[in-house]
Amino acid sequence: MFEIVTPPEPDKIIRLMGMFAADPRAGKVDLGVGVYRSPEGKTPVMAAVKSAEQRIWAAQESKSYVGLRGDLGFLDAMRRLILGESVSPDRVAAAGTPGGTGAVRQVLETVHRLNPSATVWISDPTWPNHPAIIDHLGQKRKTYRYYDAATGGIDRGGMLADLAKTARGDLILLHGCCHNPTGADLRSDDWREIAAICARTGAIPFVDMAYQGFGAGLEEDAQGLRHLATTLPEVLIAASCSKNFGLYRERVGVVLIVTDGKAAAEGVLAGMNRQNFAFPPDHGARVVQEILGDQALDAVWRNELERMRRAMEGNRRALAEALRAETGSDRFGFLAAHRGMFSLIGATPEQVERLRAEHGIYLVGDGRMNIAGLTQDTIPRVAQAIAQVLA
Ligand code: LMR
Description:
Layout lengths: L11 H11 L6 E2 L16 H13 L12 H12 L8 E6 L1 H16 L4 E6 L4 H9 L2 E6 L1 E2 L4 E2 L1 H8 L7 E5 L12 H14 L2 E6 L13 H9 L3 E6 L12 E6 L3 H15 L6 H10 L2 H33 L6 H4 L4 E3 L4 H11 L1 E2 L5 E3 L7 H12 L2
Parallel strand pairs: 1-12, 3-4, 3-7, 7-8, 8-9
Antiparallel strand pairs: 2-10, 5-6, 9-10, 11-13
The site of (2S)-2-hydroxybutanedioic acid has 5 residues, from loops.
């Protein structure tokens, strides 16, 4: 059966991971896939995660199935973390998923089933897996203007004009914070404008929340999403614990749906899980629940997350500063204003290729840099290379 099949090309992020692993050069620098690295260049298991795992190991007596939507305690803890007190729990349906990608997939497939004519509007640019999943499902999609490469900020006028063209039932896919790949985030007045547009056109916001706590802080990063939840009848959310709990390979994600039809929505989500993978993974979800449900562990986790966030901010400032010194200009000043792990540095695919071939510096082909992959040691070298190649 497979002799005649050409396998699909891996997307640009996955391809780059393979190229980096195969590169024998000692000084290579991985600024590709979105994985946090400490100032020492490590991706450690977070301290609260280690403690939670120890407790689970000691107390857990069975690994029998939990439920199609996963553990209800985990779902409630995630609802609180993401939505806070913004909406009543009676209006929030939830289901666990294998990672944030699993959540994105479950939301999109649910919408595709319920409303096959809906168009999904994605930002230009966005994370490559968004259009890939939409296309895989055969959904209609359009892009809305988002990034203004000239300023390193958002093309507000373009974005709002495009979103005004949405129709009732369309989905508007938004990044909750730390926009991937640009690093340029919506401001609170943008969220208000988008809520007003949705109220007017009947489009439904779908928020991908993959980096809560990496931008301005855990609460701050959720404000835009919470504004939508308090003002609109329906909001769809896909969230990930890969980054903020460092649980990448454990695959911990959640779908939250703010709706007046909670019971029906939970039934639909349970059925969707059953057909795609039956039960969501439990171990990582249990770790998260253990941390969020214990004051002391929760404090340890919040502290470490805040240290990570500040380290990324420090990398941004240091890189912008080093580039100012190298180029004698403020051309890369926008890097310090961006939020989260990623920024587009404004490199062409050819320049990205030269950074890789000549300097062993790996960026995604669209010029996306994982800021969290930098260290104090690599920043001067990376700044020098960028100044040289992008001169
Ligand atoms: C990224 O954008 O690098 C991460 O979210 C990892 C992934 O799955 O693409």
